[in-house]
Fold each of these.
Amino acid sequence: MRLIMKNENWTVIQAMRHARHDWMNQLQLIKGFMALGKLEDAERVIETAILQARQEAHLCNLRLPNFAEKLLTFNWEERSFQLEYEVLDHETSVNIQDEWLSEWIDSLFYLIERHIKRYGDNLLSLSINKADEGLRFFFEFSGIIQNEQLLLEDIQSQLQASYVQQWKIHEHSSQEFLFEVVL
C-alpha cells in the first residue's frame, strides 16, 4: 500500500514512522510536565491526545478512506496552514464518492493556500456532520489572508460546482473566513 502525498509517495512504513513521531512528541510532553510536577498540564496533553484519537476514529468510520487519509496526513507536510477537524456525527454513513470528495477538498485547500501568508499563524478548522441533503462541512479559517477579494471569488467559484447542494459564506475579512458547504 502506498499513500500518495503532495510531493512524494509514502510507504506504510514511512507513514507509521511519522505517526509514531507524533505520538512520541506527545509522550515526551507528558513526561516533561510530570517531571516538573505540572500534573494539570500533563493531564491536558493526555486529554487532547484522547480527543484526537477519537476524532481520527470518527473520521475513519465515515468510510471515505481517501478523504480520511487527506485529513489525517495533511499536517505531516509543509503547509501554509494547520488543519484541525472534528466529525460531529460519528455514526454517520454517507453516500458521497470518496475519490471525488478527496479531489474536491484538495482543490479547496489549494485555493486557500494560494491566498494566505505562507509563514503566518494560519489555522483551518473543519467540522463535519450529517445534513438532510448530504454531508455538511463548516470551514473556519483564521490567519493572514493576503487578498481577501480573490480568495472570496475563488471559493465562490469552487462552491458553484454542480455537486454542491448548498453553500453559504458567513464571514470574511483579512483575518478570517467562515463558510459552510453541503455535498
Note: The first strand starts at residue 2 and ends at 4.
Amino acid sequence: MVFPALDVRFAARALEAGGVIAHPTESVWGLACDPFNRDAVERLLQLKNRPLAKGLILVSGTQADFGELLESLDLEQRQKVSVSWPGPVTWLVPHFGRVPPWISGAHHSVALRCTNHPFTSALTRAFGGPIVSTSANPAGCQPAREKYQVLRYFGDELDFIGGGTTGGRQSPSEIRDLVTGRVLRAG
C-alpha cells in the first residue's frame, strides 16, 4: 500500500496540536485524536454524536505502546493477546484506572488493538504512542469505506485526512473480552 510519507508527518502534527483527523484502517476509515487530550476526545465524540459512556478504542502499530496495560495481565492472557496481534482483533482489557475516563467511558476495561495497517501503524510511530481510533461516521450512519465518504460526513470539520486506502477487509475488527472470553463483535 502506497501513501505519502509526508501525510504521516502532517497527521502526527495535527494530533500533537489537539486535532481530529481521518485515517484508513484495516476495513474502514477512522477518526483519530490524542487519547490524553480531553478537548480533542470531546471534539471527536461531538463530531460522531457518540456518548462518552461507550468508551473508545486505542490503536497502535506496536504492542509496546500498551505495556503498562498488558503487564497487569497473567501470562496466559498476554499470550492470547500476542498471538492475535498485529491484526484486526480488538481486546477489552482491564485498565485498573490507568486510562482517562474519557477513553474508558463507563467501563472497567479499555479497548486495545495493535494494527497492521501501514498508514495507521506509521502514524502511531510518528505520533509516539497509541491514538484513539473510531469509525469515521456520525452515530447511526454506515462507516466510511472511502475517503469521499469521510468528506461527505465531515467536510472541513477535520484537521487532516490521511492518505492511502483501507486494508480491504469487509468486516470491522473483532472485539473480544479478555476476561470473559466473549466475542462482542465478530470480525
Note: The radius of gyration is 15 Å.
Amino acid sequence: MELHVITKREKMQYAYVFLTDLLALAVSILLSWLITDGLFNVLVPYTARDWMQTLCALVLAFVATFFCFDQTENIVTRRPGAEIKLSLKFNLMLCVIYSALMLLTKATMLDSRYFAVTVPLINALLLPLAHGALKRLLLHFQRSWGMESLVGIVTTTDRADRLINEIGKDWSRRIVGVALLEATHEIVGTEIDGIAVKANFTDFMDWVRREALDEVYVDVPMDSGESFIPYLEEMESMGLTVHFRLPLLDRIEEACCDETSAARLSRTLGRCAGGSIVTMGTVELKLRDQIAKRCMDIVGGLVGCILSIPIIAIVAIPLKIESPGPLFFKQKRVGRNGRYFYIHKLRSMYMDAEERKKELMAQNEMNGLMFKMEDDPRVTKVGKFIRKTSIDELPQFFDVLRGDMSLVGTRPPTVDEYKQYESHHKRRLSMKPGITGLWQVSGRSNIEDFEEVVKLDVTYIDNWSLWNDIKILFKTVYVVFAGRGAK
C-alpha cells in the first residue's frame, strides 16, 4: 500500500484543470476564427470536412500536451509568474504536436498559417486567466459544493503551526478543529492560527467521536507509539482516514538525505516475512515520463543517425589516413545503477592510447576520478577536430536507439573510474547516461573538480523534466556550433 496515493484534491483538480484548459482552447479557436476570418479576412474558405480534420488534430494535440505536464501540483499555491511560464511551455508544445499531426495527415488547412499561429498565441494569454478564475472558484465555492474533506488535527502546541499551515494550502480540505494534547482547560475554546482548539489529552477522543470528520492528522512526540495504538485502532474502526507521522522516518531522512533528495524519496508501506516494512528510495520517473523520454530518444536517435552517416563517411577518410586502425572506438562503460554497456565513438586517438594513459596520469587536470588533459598527445590531428566539433560522439545515436543511452542524461564513467567511486558518487548513475547533459552545457572545459561534475549530475536528476531535457538539447546545439566546452 502506498503512503503517497493520489489524493482527493489531485483527482478533483485533474478533472477541473482538464475541463478549464479545454474550455480555454475552445474559446481560443473561436477567437482565432473571428480574428483571422471576420476581422482581417485572411482565412481561406474551407469545407466542413477540413474544419473537422483540423479540430480533431487540435484536440488530440491538446490531450497529448496535457498529459505531458505534471497536474499534481496544487494549483491554488501556484504564483502568477509560474502560470505564465507554464502557459508558454504548454502552448509551444501544443503548437509543435499540432503541426506534426497536420503534416502527418496532410491536412488541407496546413497552409492556413494565420490560424495555426493565432490559436496558441491567444491560448497562451487565456490560460493564466482561466487558471486564475479556477483558483477563485476552488477557494470560494468548494465549501458550498460540499465536496471538501473535513479534517481534525491531534498534535502538540509546538507542532501545530506547521501542520495547520501545510494542510491549509490544500483547497480540498478544511480544518474543523485541533486537539492540543498538553493544553490546559483554559486554552480549550481559544484559537491557534485561526483554528479552534477543541480538546486536550483528556477528551480528544470524545471530540473525534462526535465531530464530523473525514480525516485525522496525528503528529505527536513519541518514540515507541505503544501508548497511542488504542486510539489509532479506534479511529480506524470509525472509518476515518488517519495520517500518522513516523518520527523514525524523519530521523532517517535527516541523517541520510539532504533536503532535495528527501523530497524525491518514495515511501511505501508493505509487508515482508509477516511484518510491516517501510520502503524508501529515490522516486523513479512516472511511466508517462519514461514513455515520453524514450519516444524522444527514438525520434532523436533516428534523426541523429540519418544526419550522422554522411558526416561520418566524410571524416572517415582523413581519420583512417592519419591513424590506421578501426574507425570506431568501442569502450566498456557503466550505465544506470552500475549496469555495463559498450559506448561507441569515432576513434580520435592513436591505437596505443590506453597504454599511454598511465604515463600521463600525473598531468591530469581533473581533481578526482576523471581524466582530462589539454593537448593530449594521444589525440590525432583529425581527432582534435572531431572532438572540438563533437563529431566523435555521433555514433552514440546508435547507442541511444539500442536503449543503452539517452539523448540527455549523465556522463557514463569508465569501469576504472567506477571502481574508485565512493557511495555518494553512485547516485549520479541513478538515471540512464546520455550523449549530452547538464555538465556538458555548463562549461565542462572549465570544471576541474569531479565533485562539481557529480553535483551537476545530481542536480539534473533531482530536477528532471522533459522540458529541461529539451532546453539542454538546444543548449548543446549552441555549445557545439560555438565551439565551447569540448577539449
Note: Residues 1-6 have pLDDT under 50 and may be disordered.
Amino acid sequence: MSARTLHQIQQEGLDVLVEKLGPDDAIRFLQIYETGSGDWTKDRKKILEKDPDRIIKSIMARRKKVPAP
C-alpha cells in the first residue's frame, strides 16, 4: 500500500462528504470550520501549565471548592 498525498486524502474526504451528505450539506459542513490564526506551538507554552505538581494542586483545590454530585 503506497502513501497517498495530502491532496489525494483531501479529495477523497470531499468525495465522501458529498456522497454521504449531498453537495449542499457538504458545503454547509465545510463552512463551519475556520482556518484560525496564531502559532499553537508557541502559545501553548504560555497557556498550559508546565509543572505537573501545580496542575495536580490546582485540580485538588477545585475539587474541594465544588463537591462531587
Note: The chain has a mean pLDDT of 87.
